[in-house]
Amino acid sequence: MNAPLYNTQILRLAAEIPFHERLVAPMASVEKRSPVCGSRVTVDIDLDDAGRVSAVGMLVRACALGQASASLMGAHVIGRSADEIAAARDALAAWLAGERPTPPDWPGLEIFAPALEHRGRHASIRLAFEAAAEAAAGAAR
Fold first, then answer.
1. What is the average per-residue pLDDT within 45-64?
2. Are 54 and 89 within 8 A, CB to CB?
């Protein structure tokens, strides 16, 4: 792969993180940290009566890849169930690990194709999805 790891689309997403403020009293909150680079993402989640995400708040202290991933997660998480978010998390991890040929069925994740060969960056890309999945599962209990 010759595509640049940090491209204009990734940098734009990194600068446009939705829901970049924490929720005041979330149903669940989870922080994930990458031991490789120190990136951190905290995700707050509220669910509606049907068990779908109704509100999300985030604190993102990550590299551009982690920020872009948080941006994509946040842009499409409202209305999703805990199971849907967990499935996206698992599919993302499998794709990054080379265990599946295509990116997960979550809008925009194909932009991380240049990062597939950079294993040290994978943890940061997974952070927001890991935190959101764990928070949604916690809120569903």
1. 97
2. no
